[in-house]
Amino acid sequence: MKRAPLTLAAAVAALAALTGAAALTAPAPADAAADGKAASAARMPVERSLLVCPGPSSSDIAETTYTSFTPGAAGGGKGSARLLGATKDAKPVLEPKEPGKPVGATANGADAPALTGSADGVLAPGWTAQLTTKVSVGRARGVLGVGCTAPGTDFWFPAVSTAKGREDYIHLTNPDDAAAIVDVKLFGPDGLAKPDAGTSENIRVDPKSTKTVLLSSLAPNTQLADATAHVTTRAGRVGASVQVGEEGVGADWLPASADPAGSLVLPGIPADATSVRLVAFVPGEEDADLKLRLAAPGGAITPAGNEQLHVKAGMTTVMDLKDLTRGEPGSLLLTPADPAKASPLVAAVRVVRGSGAKQELGFVPATGPVGARATVADNRPEENTTLLSLTAPTADAKVKVTASPGTGGGEPASQEVTLKAGSTQTLNLAPAGGKGSYALTVETVSGGPVHAARTLSLPHEGVAMFTVQGLSDDHSTVSVPRASQDLSVLTR
């Protein structure tokens, strides 16, 4: 009977395919069953991580910073990581050497490349990277920030637009050696928008390359002020992000929303937001009736006049929340009006700071919880530049926040934060004597789920240029079934 060891190997292989290979050389745990029965599954660090980063900008005056970081302590083993330009003959742009120390690089102009890369060994668990681009003038003016993501096959982007004055480009990056085939569907207030001559289907993304698609070109006869884009692959996998430029309001990245769920958290809406517009979409067949609350520093409040929202299935729905935060940072909580009728949905908010010619645009999509640990790279040590928002939507919680050394040195700093249910707290934490950009890592210590977002503000000539990036679980460990201590009875 030798089927049991093969079954275990097959299970590990399946898990590795889904979440990355796990280290399987650890000694048998002390709590393994003494009677030869299999113990419960163990959490093991992943051995390989993949990341994809879109091309930063089409502007010749763009200034882009790439930053990469893996949390953890140095000296714990071997590993390697490289981010390369998304071409077949690319040169490395970033090569981290050890956990706990961020590395950075810069590129100027429209030739700054999209990136693909992998990390293994001790550099794989929690590996993260960030693009931050500053464009001082022109239609694409603004600070554009986006976290690099793992390649996937299914993405939702509420809050896109094909209206006059907007230019929304979907960036598709293929990290693999085979071509990817992509479909893009647009859903407006009346449902699925009719594409032009099949241009939204069978979009080919060549191996080790990136492609940008202007969303308005997919439905040129229909102008959608607010829409939802659904990106799926027929073959292969891609990284997908939307770059938005809006006349007179600036530019930023719109990351994909968290997977459809009955309750959503949109963390990190700035205190001085002058306009907040919620865009929601239900992919299924049942409408959603939602209760809206703002998780503020003092607890959850219901915005007057915007207590509930009805979202028709298959149709993009918009609610203008105006100056929702009214001088206090907060996070938007969407929950079913009737908990027994929770239709999964996706959502994002379009946020504007400033007024008149000094407006600046950003987006806050729904974001999953930080889980055991989450990290965001490229935070700046200058005063009032980096603000971390932490939200406990359902129960009290405690988290530990750690600021890494900067790319130019400094000492790490840590702080524990206690959160009351329904509240949002903000934190400005930087390394002691830090120089250059640094990473922020959030770890759940106790209590309920916590959602987090980082706002990076880089003002320019009176314009409050900013970008918001959500943090979500880095999935740095994988569940691996534990074998019993004595397998002789199974291998005879």
Main sheet, how many strands, which sense, barrel? Answer: 5 strands, antiparallel
If helices are DSSP runs of H or I spanning 4 or more residues, what is the number of helices? 2
Rough outline: globular
Strand fraction band?
A: over 45%
Please tally the β strands and state the result.
36
Unreliable spans: 1-38, 486-492
Write up what this structure looks like.
The protein is mainly β and 492 residues long. It contains 2 helices and 36 strands. The protein has helices at 3-19, 488-491; strands at residues 42-45, 48-53, 63-69, 79-85, 92-94, 103-108, 115-121, 128-135, 142-147, 154-160, 166-174, 180-188, 191-192, 203-205, 209-214, 227-235, 239-246, 250-254, 264-269, 273-281, 288-296, 299-301, 308-311, 317-322, 330-336, 346-353, 360-365, 373-379, 386-392, 397-403, 413-419, 423-427, 438-447, 451-457, 466-471, 477-480. The strands form 9 sheets. Strands 10, 12, 13, 14 and 16 form a 5-stranded antiparallel beta sheet that branches. Strands 19, 21, 22, 23 and 25 form a 5-stranded antiparallel beta sheet that branches. It has a 4-stranded antiparallel beta sheet with strand order 2-7-4-5, with no helix packed on it. 48% of the residues are buried.
